[in-house]
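Catalogue entry: protein
Contents: sequence, fold tokens
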Amino acid sequence: MGIRSLAAELLPSALQGLGRIAHQPPAAPAVEASSFAALTDKLGYLSKADLRQVRDAYKFADEAHLGQFRASGQPYITHPIAVAGLVADWRLDAQAVMAALMHDAMEDCGITKAELIERFGAPTADLVDGLTKLDKLQFSTREESQAESFRKMLLAMARDVRVILIKLADRLHNMRTMAAMPPAKRQRIARETLDIYAPIAHRLGLNQTYRELQELSFEHLYPWRHQALNKAVAKARGTRRDIVARVQAEVEKGFAAHKMRVQISGREKTIYSIYRKMREKHAGFAQVNDIFGFRIVVPTLLDCYHALGVLHQLYKPVPGRFKDYIAIPKANGYQSLHTTLVSPLGTAVEFQIRTEAMHAVAEKGIAAHWLYKASEKNGKNGSASADPQNLGAIWLQSLIDIQDETRDAAEFLEHVKIDLYPDAVYVFTPRSKILALPRGATPVDFAYAIHSDVGDHTVAAKVNGEAVALRTELRSGDVVEVITAPGAKPNPAWLGMVRTGRARSKIRHYLKNMETEESRAMGEKMLAQALRAEGLQMPSSDPGDTQAAALWQQITRWSGNRNRGELLVDIGLGRKIAIIVAKRLAQGLRERGTRPDAVTLTLGRYGADDAAQAQSVVFVDGSEGASVQLAPCCRPIPGDAIVGYLGRGEGLVVHTAECHTGKRLYERDSERWMRVEWADELTRSFETGVVALVGNGKGVLAQVASAISAAEADIRHLDMGPESAAETAELRLLLSVRDRVHLADVLRTLRRNPAVLRVWRIKP
């Protein structure tokens, strides 16, 4: 290979691997594929059938955009054609090219997805639909963390990696043709590109696209800085011409001496990368000494290390400036050897050494996958996929295997998103803040992610402006709004629907505290009632009352509890029996000189006074938590005579007075029973079991459900039993009713129905 001049070496036309150097003005990129004929020249890798489909998509897009023009005055169709041309450069399949041609059809032309499915098939329509959804996202804040979340959301929303590739091609062409836009809009789009789309291109290994997006963004964001640095680079290019030419000649001579076949090309840093390095190191342009470098492409993997040895024999390496990205590839599949050497004139020169396959991955990243597939189909010699070892990147090879073997786009994309949290969904708050949640998260998870108080008082939610159930799974891109109420509290059922550890721990913490408070109040009431039966009043809980405090300390030491509150909780949960604790407490009071009061004794034993009776009875209104439960054996409802059994660790369990299970418990453990009554004001409906004997005919179930609904009751559960072929069937229903009177109305309504032969309430 002959020695080329520095200018020829660094001009874009000579940089085959890099494409257009980003800091050079675009040579009329808008016309690079502004006609379909120019596009078809790039589609030689497609079959004739695929080309016919692409032509149909072009005609469809052309008709849809008829009469529309870009800000530059060109027909709008030139943009989709140019995007399709960029996609074709990556050798993406026909579906991707068709989607690129029609990517604005749904958004701008009112075309529906159903029309696209009917005409071009579901896969192409899904790609266009995915692009349309991404276009609707608005990046509204500038914080770095939000930009990162937005990038992740874009990747999470795209079910097919081709959607992201087409979107990047769309953004690249828009950036190339922004000159006609107002300055403010150029600034906004350039900032969004620099923060969002350029890092995505880098993450997917599209280094050529990444560099160009960065460069164009920098040019539009800081035109004066870009212009000044561009002039400085042009000047440096002239002054360093002799150095670069001499280094290249010596390197070519060195490889020729070892009979190695290599391709050597010059490489120049982009204006933006120079600017960023100056900012990071707080240095001037003169201190950035590795503006120019060389790329060496060799045939095989072992040749990379052989070439490294040749270079290190020619020039001394700079200590600490060698990196082996072949042995340890970057996460996006990039592989190369990087080494910085000291040239004969004392300047540092960087070399990158890689194979052809590694170079394809370095420049095209994920898009190189389709390049390899095209090579296989066309039977080209030297295909990288023909020799898996030459691929270098295990990452890329695994992508090819997945796509070829499973054709599963979802699995393909999941593999792409290495370390990009593929199991997350990204949702917006109403103020456009982005939250990352695990896949399967619900509005309750979202509420607790905002604040525990919001979660604790959640009553409803809206997703994208529509009311949804709290167990609805959220999807990336959803705008979630939580509705709260001051009196609301967490529901134990939420534990079965939330996915985040934060939400689960907060709900459990609240329920535990609520259970503790309820049990404590219940225990205090039960202990006070048991003490009144001894003719004594509850000792004071005031810490200032030293005598009472000493007594409580003595009792808690005896019971094995840490403090008075814990003892009362244990009594409320049935772990300690109130009567036994009361007798011990009474003994302590008598030892301190307190004598039983006759009036208190009478009130405690006979409940003659209404106030005393109210204090000794537990009232059930339906708002009780874990400390009071309705027994599932008899399912009491308001109007039933009820009794309360203090279970061991279960709190107070309420049975009907005629419940056989309750009667057996009373005979076995009578001291654990206490008085309970229904409150005058009830807070909810109650469940009870009903059996309906019906004729086994068509529409019977619907008639029964209709009759129950007409009686203003709800069916919570239904069991039809196994006798489906018999003439009659027993429907076992769990109904939600207000009280006994309401239940009687429901039973009367059912008996009037001709399909119902008999109906009765289930009793144990």
User: Anything to note?
Assistant: The first strand starts at residue 263 and ends at 268. Residues 1-33, 376-422, 604-615 have pLDDT under 50 and may be disordered.
